[in-house]
Amino acid sequence: MLAHARALLTSSPQGRTAYIHADLRSPQEILSASAVREVLDFSQPAALMLVGVLHFLEDKDEPRRVITTLLDALAPGSYLVASHLNPEHDRVGGVAGVRAYRAGGVAVQARNSRELTALAFSGLDLVPPGVVSVSEWRPDSPAPRPTPAEVSCYGGVGRKR
Ligand SMILES: C[S@@+](CC[C@H](N)C(=O)[O-])C[C@H]1O[C@@H](n2cnc3c(N)ncnc32)[C@H](O)[C@@H]1O
Q: Residue 68's pLDDT is what?
């Protein structure tokens, strides 16, 4: 994956990109990586996208500390996009999914929408419609879309003051 990303993520006049291999549980290492410091301008608002990854951090990994460390490094006006495995609409499937991950040796923790809101968006201004099933976050069209139970994933966007 690392070699693939390095081959594909080349910079161009339209913008610079970089890829680092790091553990989200060590946010300080991410922030201090030379590739990150070279490409990102921390004086300007940025988007931090934690999409489909926070549920791999259990409470013992201190996910709130991880998020605040990353957000503290970003300029006011930055955005956090976060989505998270959610057990509220399909408890049976949710439990089975968590079990399947764990059976494969992958730590995972589902969190409900209240827990996700507190974990990721405390202190941020939530962008409407707030923390909802990802299939309900500003759908592009009125076409049929997956139900919250089919998605089992909530998400939101918050803006740093
Ligand atoms: C469901 S995928 C989402 C990937 C991508 N964000 C997307 O939306 O397509 C979850 C990703 O989180 C990564 N991941 C899991 N635990 C991680 C950790 N502690 N640090 C960094 N990445 C992690 C996995 O390797 C995987 O690539």
A: 98
